[in-house]
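[Q] Does anyone have a clean structure-token version of this?
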Amino acid sequence: MSQLPRVVVGLSGGVDSAVTAYLLKQQGYDVIGIFMKNWEDDDDSEYCSSNIDFVDAAAVADVLGIEIEHVNFAADYKDRVFSEFLREYQAGRTPNPDILCNAEIKFKSFLDHAMRLGAEKIATGHYARVRLNSATGRHELLKGLDASKDQSYFLHRLNQAQLSKTLFPVGELHKTEVRRIAEEIGLPNAKKKDSTGICFIGERPFRDFLNRYISKEPGPIKDPSGRTIGQHVGLSFYTLGQRQGLGIGGIKAKGAQRGGGEHTPWFVARKDTEKNTLWVVQGHDHPWLQSPTLQATDVSWCAGTAPEPGRYAAKTRYRQADAACELQNMRMTDGQAGFELSFREHQWAVTPGQSAVVYDGEVCLGGGVIHSAPTMHMV
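[A] Here you go.
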């Protein structure tokens, strides 16, 4: 049997990428593994486990009988992902660095490196799928079959060139099946816990991490009546919808309107960067947390062109159920391409800096960075 082309697999040390490499080798591909090191600051700390992950990835490569190369993309990561991450937080927005990392590192720097190794394709352990639409001749990004693990949200910035060279084998499987395969073939990381969070942050307290890079400017925390009920440590350290760590528990809303009593939780509802004021409300369903529409910019469509205006579904955060919406393409005030989504049901805590990702059934069309999302009765 003639061997299929070379595929370079991003081996992270986790079970998903390990099974990805195994499946491709079983199919007859010439498989090479690459371990990407994307972060160097405090890499030996308890929070960033890249050294342990590389040992796990190397052990997997040994069991599968494939080569593995350790490649350092830390400079690219700091320049193209982390610097943007800090800029956005400093501006009071809440970015999603995993999305930028996929577009700039895993499917750009890594892809370029793989092509230099003579690969025709790359593969990762993401729960998503790629399909060539024979009618249009374009590659489509599809949701993973395991709805609870689908990662198309994080991959929505991939373009036609990237999609045409990418394989997602575990996107066709459920996580339970991936674990079963790993155990069946004796992979050393078969029971390894899934990683959570961003590599350079890991499991550490997020505020402690940001503290090292972003200056603090304390200011007032105000309730809807304009009453100052506390002090924030700096707007960058809060995100819309945040409930924990506000330091204002037990304070009643003035007049206890909207059912807000002493034990009703407070939520971050607005960040006023001009006045350095953090606005909070009581109750998960407060009108200030509900948005009927949003506008997005920094748009990226998988097909290379914007979809026709009309009815679609969208997510404004990962792990959110698809929300029915109407898409309208538009030009932003600075001339950039953008779009507006009008939702059938109001969306909760829509956050500038996060991504709005648009779907047509199981097809991920792309999306953009949320620029603004008017809420009900905002001052």
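[Q] Thanks! Anything notable?
[A] The CA atoms of residues 279 and 287 lie 13 Å apart.
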